[in-house]
Amino acid sequence: MRLNTRVLVTGAGGFIGHALVNRLKAQGCFVRGVDIKYPEYESSKADEFEILDLRRWDNCLQATRGGIDEVYNLAADMGGIGYITAFHADIARNNILINAHMLEASRLNGVGRLLFSSSACVYGQNKQRCADVTPLCEEDAYPADPEPGYGWEKLFTEELCRYYRRDYGFETRTVRFHNVYGPLGVFEGGKEKAPAAISRKVALAGDGEAIEVWGDGEQTRSFMYIDDCVEGLLRLMESDYEQPLNLGTNRLVTINQLVNIVCSIAGKQLVKRHDLSKPQGVRGRNSDNTRIKKVLGWEPSIPLEAGLEITYKWIEGELRKASRISAGKTRSAVV
Ligand SMILES: NC(=O)c1ccc[n+]([C@@H]2O[C@H](COP(=O)([O-])OP(=O)(O)OC[C@H]3O[C@@H](n4cnc5c(N)ncnc54)[C@H](O)[C@@H]3O)[C@@H](O)[C@H]2O)c1
C-alpha cells in the first residue's frame, strides 16, 4: 500500500490511464485524473477528475499543482495504424504541446517524478521490414528512423526527458509500450487498434461470413494485456531505471493468427477478405525483453488467448447492449 503517495494520471479518461487509476486507488494512493474527456464505459475512481486540455500551458500548471509526488503522463492524441498514418501534423503538434508543457509544469510545481509513455513506434522502420523480425532492443531506436508524426514526437519527447534529467536533475521514467489491448478500450470510430477492431468485426459477423482484414494479414506484432501493462508501469515508476524501456510481450503473431484466435474464442469460422489498400504499418515488430527482465526482474506474461477472451467477450457484450448483435447474426455480409 502507498497510502500517502499523491499521483497525477494524465489521459485518465483513456484506456491505459483509466486502468492505472483503478490500480493506484486499490493501492491506497491519492489520485488526480486529468483528461479532455471522462472515461467512456465506467466512471473514474480518481479522487479528483479534472477536464483540462493539456496542450495549454496554464492547464498543465493547474494539473500539477498541490504537491504531486508522481505524474504518469499518458495523455496523447493517438489511435491505431489508420489514425496515426492519416494525421501526422495534428498528432505531432498536439502531443509535443502536451509533453513539453507537462514536463516544465511538473518541474516548476516540484513534482517528484514523471513517467512518459513512449511507444515502439520510435524504432527504426528499416529494422522492421520483414515479418519474421528480430525483436527490437532499446538501442534500436538509433540511428533515428521512427514512424512519421507519432513516432518522431515520441522519440523527441524521450530526448526532452533526458535533457530535463541532465539540465535540471528532474526525475523521469520512459516506457515504450508495444500494442496494449483489453476491455474498456476503444473498439470503433477510427482510433481502435487491431485486437479491438478484429474482435468487433468477428462479433458482428455471422458464422461463415467474411470480415475485412487490413493488408495481407501476414504482418506481425506482439500484444500485451492491460493488466500486464499497468503492472509494468508501477514497477518502472518505482525503479531507479531512467533510460527508455520496452514494455510488451515477445510472442510474435501475424494479424491472420490474431483473427484465428478471436474466431476460435467466438466459435465462428469466418472468411478473411484482405484489403491491400489499407495501411498495415511496419511489416514486423516484436519486443526484446532482455532489459526489462534485468532491470525490473519481471516481464509481461498473460497469455494472448486469455487476454483476448476477456476482451472479445467485453466487446461482444457492448455490441449486444447496443442491440447491434441479435442471436449471433449481423446486418451485412462483410464487416
Ligand atoms: N495502447 C497502446 O497500445 C499504446 C502503444 C504505445 C504507446 N501508447 C501510449 O500510451 C498512452 C496511453 O494510451 P491509451 O492507449 O490509453 O490511449 P487513449 O487514447 O485511450 O488515451 C489517451 C488519452 O489522452 C487524452 N488526451 C488527448 N489529448 C488530450 C489533451 N489535449 N489534453 C488532455 N488529455 C488529452 C485522450 O482524451 C485520451 O483519453 C499514450 O501516450 C499513447 O501514445 C499506447
Beta-strand percentage range: 15-25%
How does the helix and strand content classify structurally? Answer: alpha/beta
In whole angstroms, how far apart are the ends? 46 Å
| CATH domain class of the largest domain | Alpha Beta
Description of the molecule:
This protein has two domains: 6-180 and 225-247, Rossmann fold, CATH 3.40.50.720; 182-222 and 251-285 and 303-321, Alpha-Beta Complex (UDP-galactose 4-epimerase, domain 1), CATH 3.90.25. The protein has helices at residues 15-26, 57-63, 81-86, 88-108, 150-168, 194-204, 226-238, 255-266, 290-296, 304-321, and strands at residues 6-10, 30-35, 48-51, 70-73, 113-119, 172-177, 180-181, 210-214, 220-221, 224-225, 245-247, 253-254, 271-275. The protein is globular and about 60 Å long. A seven-stranded parallel beta sheet has the order 3-2-1-4-5-6-11, sandwiched between helices. Strands 7-10 form a two-stranded parallel ribbon. By secondary structure, the protein is α/β, with parallel strands linked by helices. Helix 4 (88-108) runs parallel beside helix 5 (150-168) and helix 6 crosses helix 8. Bound molecules: nicotinamide-adenine-dinucleotide. Residues 11, 13-17, 35-37, 53-55, 74-78, 94, 98, 117, 119, 177, 179-180, 193 line the site of nicotinamide-adenine-dinucleotide.
Give the key terms.
about 325 residues; alpha/beta; Rossmann fold; UDP-galactose 4-epimerase, domain 1; 2 domains; 7-stranded parallel beta sheet; 10 helices; globular; binds nicotinamide-adenine-dinucleotide
